[in-house]
Design goal:
Blueprint: H1 9-18, E1 26-28, H2 33-44, E2 50-52, E3 57-58, E4 82-83, H3 86-94, E5 100-103, E6 107-108, E7 114-115, E8 118-121, E9 124-128, H4 135-141, E10 143-147, H5 173-176, E11 183-188, E12 192-196, E13 203-208, H6 214-219, E14 226-233, H7 239-248
Parallel strand pairs: 1-2, 1-5, 5-10, 10-11, 13-14
Antiparallel strand pairs: 3-4, 6-7, 8-9, 11-12, 12-13
Length: 256
């Protein structure tokens, strides 16, 4: 819990991420924080936001208290506009119909490359992770929002494996590799909101959450961060935002 126990770190991630979503956008969201952020945005300020699930559902209606545990679960299809095959969902990405991708990861580096495959050496990893799913497609073809807990073991100099490509090696290397659209837009953590420098594509702190210092962010990051010239302080989650989150997830499956 943070801020004297008023909200949890995951609630903070969901609220701050939801504020980055705009009315009329289509967002490719998974379960957990991405789904909570998207449904919160729909309720609070973006009623025309369209949610797309990797399992094939376009425009679902999420019932409070009945969050789906997987994007392939039947609750994902309730009152949806359309249910597609996974291939057709990825074709929507390729055709440019998806505005925002929404992901997390076990590791992220200074250029926004994400690892959700394994930790350690490829031949003998210490931890095996879920892998890519559609993650690489999402990261390659959309403007990406990443939501993660801010820890040094997660914000690393070089990810152990590039599951989902960010700005690759910085500068113009992403475009030179053939990824001419999309790229990481924001990284939302329990400490700050970060963007990327326009020229170098290195990660840059744009705002700190209430009560968080720049030094705290540095201490929890394993690479040298850039800092915006005018660092803002985010507004804490409101009572209304927290009430909606807790209505959707009363059993705290995702906001524990």
């Amino acid at each position: 819990m943070t801020e004297n126990g008023r909200h949890s770190a995951s609630e903070l991630l969901a609220v701050m991420s939801s504020r980055l979503l705009d009315d009329g956008q289509t967002v490719f969201a998974g379960v957990g924080i991405p789904l909570l952020a998207a449904t919160l945005a729909q309720r609070m300020h973006a009623p025309g936001l369209t949610i797309l699930f990797e399992g094939g559902t376009l425009g679902p209606f999420i019932t409070p208290g009945e969050l789906p545990p997987s994007t392939n679960e039947q609750r994902c299809t309730r009152r949806a506009n359309m249910v597609l095959s996974s291939t057709d969902v990825l074709l929507l990405l390729q055709r440019g119909y998806v505005d925002i991708g929404f992901m997390g990861g076990a590791q992220i580096d200074q250029y926004g490359n994400l690892n959700s495959s394994f930790i350690g050496d490829a031949d003998d990893p210490t931890i095996r992770l879920p892998g890519t799913g559609g993650g690489n497609d999402i990261a390659s073809l959309t403007r990406l929002i990443v939501a993660m807990i801010h820890e040094k073991r997660r914000f690393v100099e070089t990810v152990d494996f590039v599951t989902s490509t960010g700005f690759w090696r910085g500068g113009s290397s992403r475009v030179e590799a053939g990824l001419i659209t999309g790229g990481p837009a924001k990284v939302v953590t329990d400490l700050a909101i970060l963007g990327f420098d326009q020229e170098t594509k290195r990660m840059k702190v744009e705002a700190l959450h209430t009560g968080v210092s720049a030094e705290q962010v540095r201490e929890n990051t394993a690479f040298d961060l850039l800092f915006d010239t005018d660092i803002e302080t985010t507004k804490p989650p409101t009572d209304d935002e927290l009430a909606v989150l807790r209505e959707f997830d009363p059993d705290r499956l995702y906001i524990a």
